[in-house]
Q: What sequence folds into this?
């Protein structure tokens, strides 16, 4: 296992989703607000298929760092998929579910972690 801090793992997850056209990717530092998780990554996919693809991509990339989810929920309906890595939780929504649950508003006091999509060859 490659030991990366939660914020770096969050960037790996965010980069993985960006590479599969994940939308509106946000990283929140939850450390001071929740004692059970350090970082949230929140993203949207346009369809059930894309939400599943994003989740599979995150899982595959984090596995390269020796990380497997302690819990994986929501793949059957793919409205909201949650990948729980203990110190990092990844939330992937379809747009309507993201609007409904509005985690960014619910956790509005959480600082946003600086992250920018990696520049591709055409970017």
A:
């Amino acid at each position: 296992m490659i030991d990366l801090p939660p914020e770096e793992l969050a960037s790996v997850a965010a980069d993985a989703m960006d590479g599969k056209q994940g939308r509106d990717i946000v990283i929140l530092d939850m450390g001071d607000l929740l004692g059970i998780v350090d970082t949230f990554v929140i993203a949207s996919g346009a369809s059930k298929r894309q939400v599943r693809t994003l989740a599979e991509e995150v899982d595959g990339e984090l596995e390269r760092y020796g990380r497997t989810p302690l819990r994986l929920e929501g793949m059957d309906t793919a409205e909201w998929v949650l990948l729980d890595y203990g110190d990092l939780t990844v939330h992937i929504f379809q747009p309507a579910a993201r609007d409904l649950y509005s985690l960014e508003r619910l956790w509005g006091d959480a600082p946003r972690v600086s992250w920018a999509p990696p520049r591709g060859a055409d970017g």
Observations:
- The radius of gyration is 13 Å.
- The first strand starts at residue 23 and ends at 29.
- The chain has a mean pLDDT of 92.
- Helices lie at 6-19, 48-63, 95-101, 103-106.
